[in-house]
């Protein structure tokens, strides 16, 4: 199962999503028998790459926030 295929939420995968949707419309029955499987595999890989990029960005943001909070705690402890 994949997330909703909205183009604005998956900018890295726009071309693959469009090809996958086109395959589904051109092969309404064939999609159940593996006609679009290759595109589905590419789509899943793209989603994994997208998630890895987001995860890395979130981790970096988290590290910066932790450092800021620790600096504020030291500052507050020094004032007391």
Automatic annotation (TrEMBL):
Q: Which UniProt keywords apply?
A: Disulfide bond, Mitochondrion
Q: Which GO terms describe its cellular component?
A: mitochondrion
Which InterPro entries does the record cross-reference, listed alphabetically? Cyt_c_biogenesis_Cmc1-like
- Subcellular location as annotated: Mitochondrion
Organism domain of life: Eukaryota
Sorted alphabetically, which Pfam families does this protein's record hold?
Answer: Cmc1 (PF08583)
Keyword Transmembrane helix in the entry? The reply is no
Assigned protein family: Belongs to the CMC family.
Q: What is the protein name for this chain?
A: COX assembly mitochondrial protein
């Amino acid at each position: 199962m994949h997330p909703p295929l909205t183009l604005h939420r998956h900018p890295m995968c726009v071309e693959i999503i469009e090809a996958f949707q086109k395959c589904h419309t051109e092969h309404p029955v064939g999609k159940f028998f593996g006609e679009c499987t290759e595109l589905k595999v590419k789509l899943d890989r793209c989603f994994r790459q997208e998630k890895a990029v987001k995860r890395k960005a979130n981790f970096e943001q988290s590290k910066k926030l932790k450092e800021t909070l620790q600096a504020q705690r030291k500052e507050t402890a020094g004032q007391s």
